[in-house]
């Protein structure tokens, strides 16, 4: 089990090493939230995996509700060493006070049935987090605004997890908030400001593969992460995710991401005809610096609390880097 605090230290070391010397690590694209006919998806596992394998993904977590979709036959059919692998997971589907509490167990070794705690919202989520950890999985808190289920104050009471969806591709999860309720990204900033080390996930929550390109359906290809890892294996990918060595995206791809000394730098793989706005964000969600020139660098002062980067492409695509936590020297 990796402690969240320890993971933060590893992020700094990882980013520094990446630029100080040659490294065999590379970026791998993957989705951490996927459904098949084994729960509430519309297609069999082979059809689901085929879509991702054909669209230049490198890894895919199968996260059916309360069911471990067998991955061995899928890897036998679609897996390619160093290029594509299917990984095991589950979405734990719980609720409290008629509000949905959903968590993914990435790499989980056995099914975790919903805790059904009647104590409190936080206690219910914590019980499911603890089950996922005990089953060897990495907990990911899903779509906090689905059913307007969770506030930052409730999430703050839950420990031993460090992943939360900040963008979910399902059309009914209220990513942006509204009506006085904060969006998922604002919830993330509130948690980071409170001192939590939580990393932001973008993913599909894909269910619908028979009718593609339908805005009202949960289609694939709407959100993903790029993970920097020395190899494409479940253990290596999970270790990189836990230490925050990844970024989230809905279409923006980075050529480089590094934090060396006091300098946090992002370099974008520019698409033809696109323009980019790069925001460096700190405590309270405050924009510390905005630039349209890249590579873009922010020099930390040590009083920001945290610094993360949000990149907005001119057609609405985005990317979010994970927070770094500068210390004044």
Order of helices and strands: HEHEHEEHEHEHEEHEEEEEEEE
Question: What is the averaged pLDDT score?
Answer: 93
CATH architecture annotation name of the largest domain: Alpha-Beta Barrel
**Largest pleated sheet:** 11 strands, mixed
Q: Into which percent range does the helicity of residues fall?
A: 10-25%
Structural class: alpha+beta
Task: Tally the beta strands.
Answer: 16
Q: How do the strands line up in the largest sheet?
A: 5-4-3-2-1-8-9-16-15-12-13
Distance between the termini: 31 Å
Q: CATH homologous superfamily of the largest domain, by name?
A: Metal-dependent hydrolases
How many discrete structural domains?
2
Low-confidence stretches: 1-22
Radius of gyration: 19 Å
CATH class of the largest domain: Alpha Beta
* Helix count, DSSP H or I runs of 4 or more residues: 7
Fraction of residues in β-strands = 25-35%
Q: Could you say what the CATH topology of the largest domain is called?
A: TIM Barrel
Backbone shape: globular
């Amino acid at each position: 089990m990796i402690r969240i605090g320890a993971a933060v230290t590893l992020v700094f070391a990882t980013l520094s090493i990446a630029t100080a010397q040659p490294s065999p690590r590379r970026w791998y694209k993957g989705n951490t939230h996927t459904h098949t006919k084994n729960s509430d998806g519309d297609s069999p596992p082979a059809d689901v995996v085929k879509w991702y394998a054909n669209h230049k993904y490198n890894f895919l977590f199968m996260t059916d509700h309360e069911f471990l979709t067998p991955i061995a036959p899928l890897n036998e059919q679609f897996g390619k060493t160093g290029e594509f692998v299917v990984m095991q997971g589950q979405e734990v589907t719980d609720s409290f006070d008629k509000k949905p509490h959903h968590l993914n167990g990435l790499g989980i070794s056995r099914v975790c049935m919903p805790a059904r705690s009647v104590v409190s919202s936080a206690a219910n989520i914590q019980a499911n987090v603890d089950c996922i950890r005990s089953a060897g999985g990495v907990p990911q808190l899903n779509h906090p605004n689905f059913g307007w289920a969770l506030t930052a104050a409730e999430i703050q009471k839950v420990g031993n997890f460090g992943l939360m969806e900040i963008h979910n591709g399902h059309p009914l999860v209220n990513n942006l908030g509204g009506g006085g309720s904060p969006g998922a990204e604002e919830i993330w900033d509130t948690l980071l400001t409170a001192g939590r080390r939580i990393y932001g996930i973008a993913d599909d929550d894909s269910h619908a593969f028979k009718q593609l390109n339908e805005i009202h359906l949960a289609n694939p290809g709407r959100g993903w992460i790029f993970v920097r890892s020395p190899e494409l294996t479940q253990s290596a990918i999970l270790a990189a995710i836990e230490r925050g060595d990844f970024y989230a995206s809905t279409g923006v791809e980075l050529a480089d991401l590094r934090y060396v000394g006091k300098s946090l730098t992002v370099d974008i793989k520019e698409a033809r005809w696109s323009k980019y706005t790069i925001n460096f964000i700190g405590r309270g969600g405050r924009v510390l610096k905005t630039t349209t020139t890249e590579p873009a660098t922010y020099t930390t002062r040590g009083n920001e609390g945290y610094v993360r980067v949000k990149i907005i492409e001119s057609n609405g695509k985005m990317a979010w880097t994970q927070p770094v936590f500068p210390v004044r020297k």
